[in-house]
Design goal:
Blueprint (H helix, E strand, L loop, with lengths): L2 E6 L4 H12 L3 E7 L11 H4 L9 E2 L11 E4 L3 H14 L2 E4 L6 H10 L4 E4 L5 H17 L4 E8 L9 H14 L3 H4 E2 L14 E7 L5 E9 L2 E9 L3 H14 L5 E3 L1 H4 L6
Parallel strand pairs: 1-2, 1-4, 2-3, 4-5, 5-6, 6-12, 7-9, 8-9
Antiparallel strand pairs: 7-10, 10-11
The chain binds NADPH dihydro-nicotinamide-adenine-dinucleotide phosphate and the ligand O=C(O)C1=N[C@H](C(=O)O)C[C@H](O)C1.
């Protein structure tokens, strides 16, 4: 029997891609689709919303009332919405694929607590390439990190509401962990005015927001006389959507626990 996927934020940029990805993947089907209460999209057909034609699944507004229609929920929305959806999934015993970025520490603690009751994959980026890059960054940090300047540069579309991107923060965390640094004290997120010279052990972040950029990340490991750049460029949101569907299949039989995409892709023993 096919795994039934629920998609919240069905009308969003990622929501529409997720509906398409679910409908084209093997072994899964769209069980339910949701939008915010009061949205004009409630009652519309999820397939038509996603541009793939009528599929007979209408967009609903009450997650709890329709929880019997899906096995795993995929959520790429906003932190406040995701935390409500998560509470509902704990109540109903449904596993969750969480792609939303921009959580504060309280939100992250709530996700951790929820993962004691249900299975959650929580990843800032569901593409295979970015998760490989996380591992390459650990290697580069081991070789060069103690003596070179590390800078993370990210670019996204003009509609993105959080900065730096979740992926850039994850990159910083992978590097900081490898080097025994704390990103809270070593991360530099803004430079303006008389900043003083760069501290050797800071990890800098720069953000670009422009037009329709899907998602680009470059990390510099810069020494005097040479520089290594490790970069990833996403050219389609379908790469994130396909990754999320892959994660949904992977989490389906897990009872509880907090995982990320490196677990799904089995990259942690490379
Ligand atoms: N992990 C990954 O690989 C990726 C993560 N993302 C992240 O996914 C999230 C969504 O991105 P994107 O699709 O571009 O954003 P959009 O703004 O296009 O879509 C967000 C969707 O969520 C809905 N929504 C917003 N707030 C709430 C709420 N409180 N409760 C329920 N639904 C809500 C919106 O409805 P409405 O229109 O009515 O506001 C909309 O349908 C972002 O956090 C982004 O950073 C994006 C791409 C890849
Ligand atoms: O908002 C986006 O679009 C994206 N958000 C994620 C992030 O914050 O890292 C992932 C991807 O880069 C696209």
């Amino acid at each position: 029997m096919a795994l039934r996927i629920g998609v919240v934020g069905a009308g969003g940029r990622m929501g529409r891609q997720l509906i398409q990805a679910v409908q084209t993947a093997d072994g899964v089907e769209l069980g339910a689709a949701f939008e915010r209460k009061g949205s004009t999209l409630i009652g519309s057909d999820a397939g038509e919303l996603a541009g793939i034609g009528h599929i007979g699944v209408s967009v609903e507004e009450n997650l709890a009332a329709c929880a019997d229609n899906f096995d795993v929920l995929i959520d790429f929305t906003r932190p406040e919405g995701s935390l409500e959806h998560l509470a509902c999934c704990v109540e109903k015993g449904k596993n969750v694929i969480l792609g939303t970025t921009g959580f504060d520490d309280t939100g992250k603690a709530a996700i951790q607590a929820a993962a004691e009751k249900i299975g959650i994959v929580f990843a800032s980026n569901y593409s295979v390439g970015v998760n490989l890059v996380f591992k390459l960054l650990e290697k580069a940090a081991k070789v060069m990190g103690d003596y070179c300047d590390i800078e993370i540069i990210e670019a996204h579309h003009r509609h993105k509401v959080d900065a730096p991107s979740g992926t850039a923060l994850s990159m910083g965390e992978h590097i900081a962990k490898t080097l025994g640094r704390d990103l809270k004290t070593h991360g530099v997120f803004c430079r303006e005015g008389i900043t003083g010279e760069r501290k050797r052990d800071e990890i800098g972040f720069s953000t670009i927001r422009a037009a329709d950029v899907v998602g680009e990340h470059t990390v510099w490991f810069a020494d005097i006389g040479e520089r290594v750049e490790i970069a990833h460029k996403a050219s389609s949101r379908m790469t994130f959507a396909n990754g999320a569907v892959r994660a949904a299949k992977w989490i389906a039989d897990k009872k509880q626990g907090l995982f990320d995409m490196t677990d799904v892709l089995d990259l942690n023993n490379l």
